[in-house]
Amino acid sequence: MRCSHCFAEFPDYYTECPECGTPVPQQPTELFPAINVNTAEFERVQEQPQEAPKNRKRIVAIVAVVVVLLLIAGGVGGYLAHRNAQIQQAAAEAQAYEDAHSLHAVPLKLTAEGYSDELATRFPVRVEGTDLDNNAINELAFVDGSGNGLELRQGDYVLSFPAAPLSADGTVWDVPDKTLSFQITSSIGAGDAYEELLSKELTYRVVTPAAISDDLLATAREYAAQDTERQVALDDYVNAAKEKREAAKNAEQQTMRDAKHNEFQTHYTNIENQLAADRSKGLTDEEWTQVASDRINELHQLATDEYSYLMSIVDETTANALRQSQSAFESNLAASTSEDWRDYQISVCESRIEVLLQQI
């Protein structure tokens, strides 16, 4: 059926137009059989078409909201995915930076006779060069007797060895006259040790105690004092080295004095033997005078040599005493005017030599 007013179409059983409300003309009832109509059902059916346009609008609105939400969700998801990729990339770059800047142990091969980590200071190592960021490096490191303790990042380096360690028993080592140049590259895994220097041995030789110098000790002490991880009584270590040096020097001096004593004693014995042989020859006075003069000169020269040697090794107090005794000897030697002056001078020289020999 079509409305006569607004021309809207609707079912035949409607009594009025659902759009404009215009009543629908009724057909004569006598021409059609009677129809029992359920009023409640009729009213329900009558209301449904009126809500259809409103439902349609609601559906359109819901669809629009869903579309908007989907677009928002897609945008958020895309952003989150992009952000996650950025975070992963940043994490990867940070890990790569950390790996490249990680420290690598750089063990050294050291040889030092008699060295003990428990009794000695560590070995100082000067590190110079540039790291992978082109930063200049000039540092002091310390390694133990096994060559461990040095750690470096990637870069180009030169190692030098400025001082020797000190030992509690007074042992001192010399300094290797050597430098080590090397490069740590990215080919080494993060945290892995750089072991290329183990093929280059560094030998620290024990310094002969008598050859230990004050400069060597001062330098060793200066560097050992900078090792904050190993603090020891450095003055005791230095004093032990000095005592060892003095004992060695005294032993050397005693050896030299013993050798000199034997040399003078042998010379003196030879002169004495020659004098005894001369006396047994039955020489005339003239011959004996000449022979005796020669022997006196030899004895005098021997006494003078002994005196000079002693003066070179004794302290000032002893030297003053020697000067006085030498002066007395020279005076006694020149004092004889008797006929037996030869035997007297020989006796003076012999006594002088024997006294000097006891002091050597």
The biggest beta sheet reads:
4 strands, antiparallel
Q: What's the CATH architecture name of the domain at 104-232?
A: Sandwich
How many E-type strands? Answer: 8
Strand proportion, as a percent range, falls in: 5-15%
Low-confidence stretches: none
The CATH class of the domain at 104-232 is Mainly Beta
Which helices and strands, and how do they pair?
Blueprint: H1 39-100, E1 104-105, E2 109-112, E3 123-131, E4 136-143, E5 151-152, E6 155-160, E7 180-184, E8 201-204, H2 214-224, H3 234-279, H4 285-313, H5 316-334, H6 341-359
Parallel strand pairs: 2-8
Antiparallel strand pairs: 1-5, 3-4, 3-6, 6-7
Helix pairs in contact: 2-3, 3-4, 3-6, 4-6, 5-6
Model description:
The chain is α+β, with helices and mostly antiparallel strands. Among the domains are: 104-232, Sandwich (Immunoglobulin-like); 246-359. Helices cover 52% and strands 11% of the residues. The protein contains six helices and eight strands; from the N terminus they run H-E-E-E-E-E-E-E-E-H-H-H-H-H. It has a four-stranded antiparallel β-sheet with strand order 4-3-6-7, with no helix packed on it. A two-stranded antiparallel ribbon has the order 1-5. Strand 3 and strand 4 (136-143) form a beta hairpin. Helix 3 runs antiparallel to helix 4, helix 3 runs antiparallel to helix 6 (341-359) and helix 4 (285-313) runs parallel beside helix 6 (341-359). The protein is rod-shaped and about 200 Å long. The chain starts with 38 loop residues before the first helix and ends with a helix. The relative contact order is 0.07. The mean pLDDT is 87.
